[in-house]
TrEMBL record:
<dbReference type="GO" id="GO:0005524">
    <property type="term" value="F:ATP binding"/>
</dbReference>
<dbReference type="GO" id="GO:0016887">
    <property type="term" value="F:ATP hydrolysis activity"/>
</dbReference>
<dbReference type="InterPro" id="IPR003439">
    <property type="entry name" value="ABC_transporter-like_ATP-bd"/>
</dbReference>
<feature type="domain" description="ABC transporter">
    <location>
        <begin position="12"/>
        <end position="246"/>
    </location>
</feature>
<protein>
    <submittedName>
        <fullName>Daunorubicin/doxorubicin resistance ATP-binding protein DrrA</fullName>
    </submittedName>
</protein>
<dbReference type="InterPro" id="IPR003593">
    <property type="entry name" value="AAA+_ATPase"/>
</dbReference>
<dbReference type="Pfam" id="PF00005">
    <property type="entry name" value="ABC_tran"/>
</dbReference>
<keyword id="KW-0067">ATP-binding</keyword>
<keyword id="KW-0813">Transport</keyword>
<dbReference type="InterPro" id="IPR017871">
    <property type="entry name" value="ABC_transporter-like_CS"/>
</dbReference>
<dbReference type="InterPro" id="IPR027417">
    <property type="entry name" value="P-loop_NTPase"/>
</dbReference>
<dbReference type="InterPro" id="IPR050763">
    <property type="entry name" value="ABC_transporter_ATP-binding"/>
</dbReference>
<keyword id="KW-0547">Nucleotide-binding</keyword>
Amino acid sequence: MTDATTLPDNAIEVRGLKKTYAGSKKSAPKTALRGVDLIIPRGSVFGLLGPNGAGKSTLINILAGVVKKSEGAVTIWGRDIDKEPRDAAAALGVVPQEIVADVFFTPRESLEVQAGFYGVPKNERRSDELLAALGLSDKANAYVRALSGGMKRRLMVAKALVHNPPILILDEPTAGVDVELRRQLWAYVRQINAEGVTIVLTTHYLEEAQELCDTIAIVNRGQVVACEPTPQLLRRLDSRNVVVTPETPQATPPVLDGFQVTPRPGGAFAVTYKKGQSSVEQVINAVRAAGVTIADITTEDPDLEDVFLALTYGDASQVDPTKD
């Protein structure tokens, strides 16, 4: 696509992106994106997260050229989608959330047809290489309709890569996929990322995003509410948990003034405190003052799920925007 000496610093740049869907006689216009700004660095694994209806699919469809934006500018691999739409689209490989299968073709035929759509010369096609990389060699000549759901998803990844795009967008790629197939898919994603392919991932499996992504953007109600390197994002939640295992299991956890207490399995409970306002020592003193004898304690830092919930569903005041 681009000479090695002129590779863009950023795989995708989005500025002031807005999208409003026209209304009808029975419904008002719907605004899906409200001025999104987003920079996706070249070579990164970039997570795009958000609740259902947040605008993620609209954003991906605009990048893929399926939906027209209302306002703003989008550059993909240095190509403006308004001025060079074909070149911008060719820089992307998109794996949609829905399984789209050519049921009357074999996997090898599906890849050959897809490569033909992109004008890949026959001597440069990688059908067998991609089938082997995604564990589909033994199904190369079976009809696609006979493949399992997980195999069809892997075939969709292979189809997205037939033209060797520098950017791969994965929209919920492991939905409905079993643990072993998920592991194989992520191993391959890590491999092609190490070879220089930029990955854009949407997923509802937040532990996957936390493990895989260098940077994560969280979208809510059509706006980017956070976009930071993953470790930095995790530090934004100004709270910790102290998990208390009492000598005598508690059927009902104690009420502690000034702290949120939630039950845990086995009669234990977790006490949540804000790091800038309390300490582990104060939590322990409060537990003892409630008449609980402590057998063991552990502490937990917030994970991505905690941050995600605070930014999209819960009390966003928990998130300290000054943390770095």
